[in-house]
Automatic annotation (TrEMBL):
Biased composition (Polar residues): 9-22
MF annotations from Gene Ontology: cysteine-type endopeptidase activity; protein-phosphatidylethanolamide deconjugating activity
Entry EC no(s): 3.4.22.-
Gene Ontology biological-process annotations: aggrephagy; autophagosome assembly; mitophagy; piecemeal microautophagy of the nucleus; protein processing; protein transport
Functional note: Required for selective autophagic degradation of the nucleus (nucleophagy) as well as for mitophagy which contributes to regulate mitochondrial quantity and quality by eliminating the mitochondria to a basal level to fulfill cellular energy requirements and preventing excess ROS production.
Record's protein name: Cysteine protease
Reactions mediated catalytically: [protein]-C-terminal L-amino acid-glycyl-phosphatidylethanolamide + H2O = [protein]-C-terminal L-amino acid-glycine + a 1,2-diacyl-sn-glycero-3-phosphoethanolamine
Lineage: Eukaryota, Fungi, Fungi incertae sedis, Chytridiomycota, Chytridiomycota incertae sedis
Peptidase C54 catalytic domain mapped to chain residues: 110-380
């Protein structure tokens, strides 16, 4: 599918409403939501969704699942609308694991608070052009770039605020609020933000990706590493595994690079777990990843349908979907932001996808806060591989004959 520039998108009454305040956006009419779904459906290749239950709990978290159905039900699932069509799967919500924490169900209050605290980054429009191109929106090509942003942003939450941080308590703690706003500011859609869509797209040119081209798992991993290594003010390391193998000597070097002591590090593992689809032999190991406290998510998918997976319920993965078009958030002084200004960076609709529908091209993300945490991660990674086909391997150091400075492949490599 050819990238769709923002200038070619039809102007509708709904798109004008998107430019109004966040509080008004939360009260979309049915027509606005369906229009948003149409925008998603025609600009991505992943529109096979339907709702499978009504709202769960007092906070109106809505469950949606991936399946074949009519255009109308696909649109309503994407927008989180329940039209009462009676075509849901009606499966009960069972135990769910979200980034290392287990909850009784998706209706559990603890799960809802945790889920809504994860950073959700989607398509945006109306931002400054990504020069030298004229793109002012990433609809149709930016989903993996947005998934990569989500991976890094949620790792920053772990690193700077801790796994127990919750958005609902953040406003009462000025120190935590300021850190939270600082994290989101790094991803605003402006050339000055260190991890903006602008910088990611431009850096992709070093990996044979033109502005407006989709990234694969390996490319986004290496682009994020280059950007984070270049941003010296952030005291967090990043390591990208080679061919599904983690080398502990390289990780240790990354964790201590330029420091007397240890620093928290994000470990990215680009992998391919099948040919056309996700090989079932990897199902159990992939689900087990979400039981690891170091897990910060899994990004992946085929072109134009990348998703960011953050949990598992039975044989379904819980995900955040970047394929929603929102207006770019206004850039202003960090102290000027109110909660409603940043509300579109959090999702209240729980969506799940059958593991059979997951694309095999993925990047796994793990955050290790200390040397002891890395040791614990390695031990648990070995344990979850017992009796299962492992997703990756861990070795002390790379073979001496390996060219450690070899070129990074571009997406031929993305798999």
């Amino acid at each position: 599918m050819e990238p769709v520039k923002a200038e070619t998108l039809p102007t509708t009454e709904a798109s004008q409403h998107l430019k109004q305040s966040i509080s008004e956006e939360q009260e979309h009419t049915l027509w606005e939501k369906v229009t948003e779904g149409i925008s998603h459906f025609f600009h991505t290749a992943s529109g096979r969704f339907r709702t499978h239950s009504t709202t769960a709990g007092a906070n109106n978290i809505i469950l949606a699942a991936h399946d074949d159905n009519t255009l109308l039900t696909r649109l309503t699932a994407r927008t989180g609308i329940d039209l009462g069509l009676g075509n849901g799967r009606n499966r009960d919500s069972g135990p769910v694991r979200l980034l290392g924490i287990e909850y009784p169900s998706c209706a559990d209050q603890g799960f809802q608070d945790d889920f809504k605290s994860r950073v959700w980054i989607t398509y945006r429009n109306g931002y400054p052009p990504i020069k030298p191109s004229t793109y002012t929106s990433d609809v149709g090509w930016g989903c993996m770039l947005r998934s990569g942003q989500m991976m890094l942003a949620n790792a920053f939450l772990f690193h700077e605020l801790g796994r127990d941080w919750r958005l609902t308590r953040c406003q009462d703690d000025k120190g935590a609020w300021d850190k939270y706003v600082t994290i989101l500011n790094r991803f605003l859609d402006t050339p000055s933000a260190p991890f903006s869509i602008h910088r990611i797209a431009l850096l992709g040119k070093q990996f044979d990706k033109n502005i407006g081209e989709w990234f694969g798992p390996s490319t986004i991993s290496h682009v994020l590493k280059v950007l984070l290594d270049d941003h010296k003010d952030i005291d967090m390391g990043i390591y990208v595994a080679t061919d599904g193998v983690m080398y502990l000597d390289d990780i240790n070097n990354e964790c201590t690079k330029g420091h007397e002591g240890w620093r928290g590090t994000l470990i990215l593992v680009p992998i391919r777990l099948g040919v056309e689809g996700l090989n079932p032999v990897y199902f159990d190991a992939l689900k087990a990843c979400f039981s690891l406290p170091q897990c910060v998510g899994i990004a992946g998918g085929r072109p134009n349908s990348s998703l960011f997976f953050i949990g598992v319920e039975g044989n379904h993965l819980v995900y955040l979907d970047p394929h929603f078009l929102r207006p770019a958030v206004e850039v202003k002084h960090p102290a000027s932001y109110a909660p409603e200004d940043l509300s579109t960076y959090h999702c209240e609709t729980v969506r799940t996808m059958s593991m059979e529908a997951v694309d095999p091209s993925l990047v796994l993300g793990f955050y290790c806060s200390s040397k002891q945490d890395l040791k614990s991660f390695c031990e648990q990674a070995v344990n979850i591989s017992h009796g299962r086909t492992p997703l990756f391997t861990i070795q002390e150091k790379a073979p001496e004959f390996q060219d450690r400075d070899g070129d990074v492949l571009s997406d031929g490599d993305d798999f």
